[in-house]
Known about the structure:
The complex is a heterodimer of chains A (393) and B (255).
Chain A: E1 10-11, E2 14-15, H1 24-39, H2 41-55, E3 61-63, H3 65-71, E4 74-79, H4 89-102, E5 107-112, H5 116-128, E6 131-137, H6 138-143, H7 145-153, E7 157-161, H8 168-181, E8 186-188, H9 199-207, H10 209-222, E9 229-233, H11 238-244, E10 254-262, H12 273-276, E11 278-282, E12 285-289, H13 314-322, E13 325-331, H14 332-346, H15 352-361, E14 371-376, H16 384-391
Parallel strand pairs in A: 4-14, 5-6, 5-8, 6-7, 9-10, 9-14, 10-13
Antiparallel strand pairs in A: 1-2, 3-4, 11-12
Helix pairs in contact in A: 2-4, 4-5, 4-9, 5-7, 9-11, 10-11, 14-15
Chain B: H1 3-10, E1 14-20, H2 29-38, E2 43-47, H3 58-69, H4 74-80, H5 84-87, E3 92-95, H6 98-104, H7 106-116, E4 120-122, H8 128-141, E5 145-146, E6 149-150, H9 156-165, E7 170-173, H10 187-197, E8 205-208, H11 214-221, E9 226-229, H12 231-236, H13 242-254
Helix pairs in contact in B: 2-13
Bound molecules: pyridoxal-5'-phosphate.
Pyridoxal-5'-phosphate is lined by residues 87, 113-114, 116-117, 192, 233-240, 306-307, 351, 353-354, 377-378 of chain A.
Amino acid sequence: MKYKVNEKGYYGDFGGAYIPEMLYPNVEELRQNYLKIIDDADFQKEFHQLLKDYVGRPSPLYLAKRYSERYGANIFLKREDLNHTGAHKINNTIGQILLAEKLGKKRIIAETGAGQHGVATATVCALRNLECVIYMGEVDIERQAPNVARMKMLGAKVVPASSGSKTLKDATNEAMRDWINNPVDTHYIIGSVVGPHPYPDMVAIFQSIISEETKKQLLEQTGSDQPDYVLACVGGGSNAMGMFYHFMDDENVKLIAVEAAGKGVSSGFSAATTYLGKEGVLHGSRSILMQTPDGQVVEPHSVSAGLDYPGIGPQHAHLFKTGRGQYVSITDEESLDAGLLCTQLEGIIPAIESAHALAYLEKMEFKGGENVVVCLSGRGDKDLDTYIKYFNL
Amino acid sequence: MNRIKQLFQEKKNILSIYYTAGYPNTGDTIQIAEALEKSGADMLEIGFPYSDPVADGPVIQASSKQSLDQGMTLNLLFEQLKDLRKKVTIPVLLMGYVNPVLQFGVEKFCEACAEVGVDGCIVPDLPMVEYEEFYKDCFEKHNLSNVFLITPQTAEERIHKIDGLTNGFIYLLSSSATTGKNLEVGNTTEAYFSRIKNLNLKNPTMIGFGISDKQTFDKACSYANGAIIGTAFVKAIADGNLEESVSNFMKKFKG
Ligand SMILES: Cc1ncc(COP(=O)(O)O)c(C=O)c1O
């Protein structure tokens, strides 16, 4: 429990709820109710039923043979890409939509970067017949066009965010403004382990199904539920937190979080938050964020829309600061190359986000025979345009 | 005595104006303050800009962005305010988001405020619990009032807590909204204003967000000690001669 949230909503120095008064009633309502609702047996039953029948869980833990030969270690891929809608994001949206219903909310809003969270939110809104508004940066609308079309087909209204860098950070600002202006009937489904307490904890709980399953699957496949390493990419950090969750207190399991270096950590076009960032407050929590000495948030860059965010969730900041997690970064080019490699070795086209985690395998040194789990957080269908352009396919 | 307290003791129907520091031009901060006092403003809220102002609508977002793009920082703002008290006598508050304050340093921020003669602060995303635990002593040591916001959704118990924690005024939002939404005084808003009036709070109240003309200003004054105008003013000084724009704008309220 050392790395979990305390009763004040903090992970060590990080977390809290830095929100304007307009958001207080909604966030407080959530804070008072989220654990009660989630722990309720009926909720658990419905949540797990939907994960099984609708999402297609448990997602396989696949021993990737050719990867394993290449690296001389047992490389397991946790196949979140096989979930309905193609990424881990749906684990969280299923949980939050059920919770929003319990709170009597009629309207759902969300931000999205890659569009995966937007699609996952629009999907559960269609499923439960709730109004859905998705905020998405103009830049992302362009580079993730297939997902925009999916959201529209699912009945969501997609609103472009045109301020700042026109990416995930700005979409999040717009969603928060929407929530301020619609204080009574709206629930904001935040897509990662960011935002004011209790969001980081709530999203982590919903995503923790990833490591819960992984433990069982590892035990079956290797005889031990303790791998040597688990790896995941970090935008806000939700797939990583889901992957780390049940391993956090197993101190012998090394947690590796892979951030997006963009064009290189020193290039001025990067999203490597722990490397470039300092402690501060963004989107309702105290964490680590990329900022100027004057406290203005710096606009990030990554080829992958889902990692193009200047902060990380407060729990990640805590894992980083305590040294429990190792935070590394991978460039745009390294990730795209890793995406192609995965496709050609294993016949799996990964999301460029997930390819960041895979790319780090190239940089690790294995003694031989270690068990390594990589969270394959999503599939690459949405990224075909980027891959095609980069490789001249 | 703190200038804010004195103002509320002496006056009714207080008109407070918000504007963004360094907008429309970096060097305008003090000139606007002087012009506002000259044309009858009772109190000033000078916004220090932030890159991600989630509580603000498009007009104040744009003014913040322009100001930042032109080079405004907290350091520069305090530099500009060095001779504030030689030029302006009415109460002045700084308004902005918590992250720039954190990076500047809370203690250093409070010292700088006191040194230039700022009387209080409004930091909308600084939570009450954090204020109480980490900021209050420092604010009080430097005789700074910290102003909290309340909305129609703020529970009564919380309003009393806020009332106990502050010593300037309470900022009553006409509705839960980002800045710049127009005030629609319907029955529910009036009921909310009356409800607050009848709580007999120890602090005076100011109504803000969406006040844009004499009519909405007067309405607000019938329920509170005064009102705050932001977006409408920021819009009015976007271009043209600054002195003229300020004085023309103020005539609508003081004429
Ligand atoms: C496939 C995939 N992986 C990872 C991410 C990054 O988000 P997080 O760090 O919250 O897992 C995204 C976000 O859009 C995504 O679509």
